[in-house]
Amino acid sequence: MPHDHSDHSHGPDHPHTLLPPEPALRVRALETLLERKGLVDPAALDAIIDTYENRIGPRGGAQVVARAWTEPEFRAALLEDATAAVADMGLYGRQGEHIVAVENTGTVHNMVVCTLCSCYPWPLLGIPPGWYKSDAYRARAVREPRKVLAEFGVTLPRETAVRVWDSTAEVRYLVVPRRPEGAEGLDKEALAALVTRDSMIGCGLAVNP
Ligand code: FE
To answer: Taking the model in full, what pTM does it have?
Structure first.
């Protein structure tokens, strides 16, 4: 059976049907279009992506956490106004204009999601992982956070409350994980190595030394 050309709702007159279905391909198509129109410079785009993927990454956030673990004054400043505290460490940039730090304790475990899209504190953690942007994580983190945490290998005591923070274009969250036992003698650099990306999203714990 040949294609029924009388069905104009799916015909070639409708530009959106020309877009490929996969999100990555759609993004590529949009990028090509913007480049052709001279609205974006491809070299600038590549530089931005390289910066956040390879040069920033989650190590900045790990240094912030290690400092919060070892310097009570910095910890207080971070919890009071994270944007200012991390800017003093040179960790200010786009997608990180308003950062809020939330600290895990024996009674509260914090977890971050963006239910709308994929808002994330880029200057501290780099580019978000694929799962953070997935429909499944965005829906389930709110509905069944404990189950999602279990799938990440995180099982919390029953008395620990789970608090889920929904990021927006305005506010990005950084989770300060609990400092593991037995890390007392370590310097800041060694402590930062215990802080995983996932622990700063709240989907993991800092690793034991
Ligand atoms: Fe978002």
So the answer is: 0.79
